[in-house]
Amino acid sequence: MALKDSGRDPRDHPSRSVFVLLLLACLTVITLDARGGDNSPLDPVRSIAGNIVGPVEAATATAVRPFSDIGSYLRTTRGLRNDVAKLQSENSQLRSTVETAPLDRARLNELDGLTRTAKDTGYSLVAARVVAMGPMQSFSRTVTIDAGTSSGVRADMTVLNNDGLVGRVIRATRTTSTVLLIVDPDSVVGGRLGSNLEIGVISGQSLTQKRDDLNLELVDNSVVPERGDVVATWGSDNGVPYVAGIPIGRVASVVSNPSQTEKRAVITPFVDFTALDVVGVVVPNGTHGDRVVIKADGGIK
Questions:
Q1: Model pTM score
Q2: The pLDDT of residue 86
Q3: Is residue 160 in some structural domain?
Q4: CB count, 10 Å around CB of 146?
């Protein structure tokens, strides 16, 4: 009678035996360790293993740490670079703010002065900035301002600042205007003495004279202007090109011509024409445009 094949490999039995023996050994070790408590017989073995494995773990961690920290290092470096760039930008902005602060304060004072001038004179003003000066080779004294017809500015309008009369608009584009200064030799302004209300004609000095001074010739040649007397505009018809009551300057000296009866007064203007910045153009009440109009009552529109 033939034996049936069970289908099992005899070599499987040793493997199962080894597994059983290892399981029994683990149970034995756990039991001994638990019963020993603080005096476990496995403590020496555990200590030896710790002394061997501990240094290996520490050395491995030391060797691996630079590689594991590369990602964090790169992220930190990138963040620091961004912070440095941001701080440099902020420092540049702060430096620019500090450097331009005096100019901003000066312009604010000029605007405050224009507001006071509007209240004192009763005229509405369009504020503008001087953006260019005419070439000296042209033998004329002009400046360009950044307000034009879109702001309600037209030719033959009076231009002043918080010190006094600046000049008049001679031409205007949509965004800019050209202003003829009163110190130009071709400029003619009607003036009035403050002490006796005598009127005369004020003109710019010729090229052979001091260009920032003005000449005053009174209508009445018998009147002698007093030194220190203030001169203001006496106004034109309908305020074109000059409105009345705008300070022009002060009498510095009187020059007499022995061969003639005329007397000419030299006027020092109140305006510093080498430092023009913020000016106001006198516009009719109710003017609308793309610029703020400073009204006579101190308001704006």
A1: 0.64
A2: 75
A3: yes
A4: 15
